[in-house]
Design brief:
Elements lengths: L1 H4 L20 E4 L2 H7 L7 E9 L5 E3 L8 E3 L6 E3 L4 H14 L12 H12 L4 E5 L6 E5 L5 E10 L22
Parallel strand pairs: 3-6
Antiparallel strand pairs: 1-7, 2-8, 4-5, 6-7
């Protein structure tokens, strides 16, 4: 059945941003292009894209925020200072950033540990999922804890036809000096 292939396999769930290995969550997006980008397809690969509908009212923890904490470097210590009145903003910003930051297949699976623990805490408190911004698109993502809380409305096949990268220099250029010994 096509619907079953649009959800993670219950007995073979791979590790994700929110879910530990063996516990399947359904990752959704509110934007078609973001959903396709999150799969990180290669040129000319085929990607299935589905639209789902919720079957009940869901309570979601929204970790996306437009507020950035005002941080400043300490001149006396090697750390960042956040004023107490901005602690909530800083904590939610960092949690959202943790969920948004993609981990590649080359990264250590422990890179997911912090967000998996946070998601499991939300699930244990009775929430249905966690929402966060995408680092790969303009939309928002949702990790849904209960695979049966949604049903498939439609499904389509898309082919990646073009990839565009945009780069900016992140650090100063350095030069290697050759010296004769």
């Amino acid at each position: 059945m096509v619907f079953q292939r649009m959800k993670p396999l219950r007995d073979r769930a791979r590790e994700g941003r929110a879910n530990p290995k063996g516990i399947p969550y359904l990752y959704l997006s509110n934007d078609k292009d973001t959903a396709l980008a999150e799969v990180r397809p290669w040129l000319e690969s085929l990607v299935s894209l589905a639209q789902f509908r919720t079957l009940r009212e869901l309570t979601i923890v929204d970790c996306s925020t437009d507020q950035r904490p005002k941080r400043r470097m300490s001149t006396a210590e090697p750390f960042v200072i956040v004023r107490p009145e901005e602690w909530d903003i800083a904590v939610w910003y960092d949690i959202g950033h943790g969920f948004s930051t993609p981990v590649t297949v080359d990264d250590d699976v422990a890179s997911y540990a912090a967000t998996q623990i946070i998601a499991e805490f939300f699930r244990s408190e009775g929430f249905d999922g966690v929402a966060y911004e995408s680092a790969l698109g303009t939309g928002h993502n949702l990790a849904l804890f209960d695979l049966d809380a949604v049903e498939l409305l439609n499904c389509g096949l898309y082919k990646l036809s073009k990839v565009a990268f945009e780069f900016e220099q992140a650090a100063n250029t350095y030069f290697v000096s050759k010296t004769n010994s």
